Amino acid sequence: MWETKTETATRVRGRIEKIIDYARARKLRKDENPARWRGHLDALLAKPSKLIKSENYPSLPYQRANAFISALRQRQGISALALEFLILTNTRTGDVLEASWQEIDLDSKLWTIPEHRLKTRKEHLVPLSDRAVEILKTIDNSDPSNLIFISPRGGQLSNMAMLQLIKNMDSDKTPWRADNGRIITPHGFRSTFRTWAGECTAYPRDLIEFAMAHQLKDKAEAAYHRSTLPEKRRKLMQDWSNKLNTHASNAENVKPIRKTRPANT
To answer: How far is 44 from 32, CA to CA, in rounded Å?
Structure first.
């Protein structure tokens, strides 16, 4: 399992180690921790980094992102709204599925994701574009669970709902595929955003990284940033929304040249 399902095995080992450490701390166990990595299993097993093949999430070229949004808006249901909200806010699937109304400030157009729900363990402020706010205002907020995106059957939306929606949208006529031919994923839109922001805008790199909820790799540089500059990021996120909305608002006015030519030309 360590070699064939390395990611799963690594997580299982880490959890077992924590459980046994807890038992030792509470004097419920005296023996050494057999799941300890450093100074024990690291001498017996290959490092996960050598076994796991790094593979990016399939992402859509940013040139087609607005066309995807146009197609997405033809779909009905909470999964379509959740997916568009995820793309607009440049967040992860779990962030959207676990989002609650108490995290949203519609007056300030700001979404505050608490630190316990993030990989960085730091609170993340997400400025909401006009379209993101519009989506929220179409959703009923009376559910007792306080979650924003509720499954039609009740409770939290499935973590496969948005991916399944993309698969349903994919077809021979309109394939929503990455450059390598694989069907795109919700998480892949973060790469779409990052590439667009880097290639098509003049926003500083640190501002883009903050929009990704990333920590700056340079510790000295990060030490000077006491804030992730949410108000400066607000224009970036609105520009992203405007880019996505371009095709949706203009598509109906575009007519193929060949079909509008007279028959004798």
So the answer is: 16
Quick check: 13 and 37 in contact, CB under 8 A? Answer: yes
Burial of 220 (0-12, 13-18, 19+ CB in 10 A): exposed
Residues in the chain: 265
Residue for token pair 């500059």: 229
User: Global pTM?
Assistant: 0.73
The domains of the chain, with CATH numbers, are 6-51 (no CATH), 62-253 (1.10.443.10)
Q: At residue 109, does pLDDT exceed 80? A: yes
CA distance 209 to 124: 12
Spell out the residues 6+ positions from residue 59 whose beta carbon is closer than 8 angstroms to its own: 178, 184, 185, 188, 189, 190, 191, 192, 195
Residue type, 201: T
Q: pLDDT band for 158, please (50, 70, 90 cuts).
A: very high
Instruction: Report whether pLDDT(87) > 70.
Output: yes
Per-residue pLDDT for 144 more than 90?
Answer: no
SS3 for 79?
Answer: helix
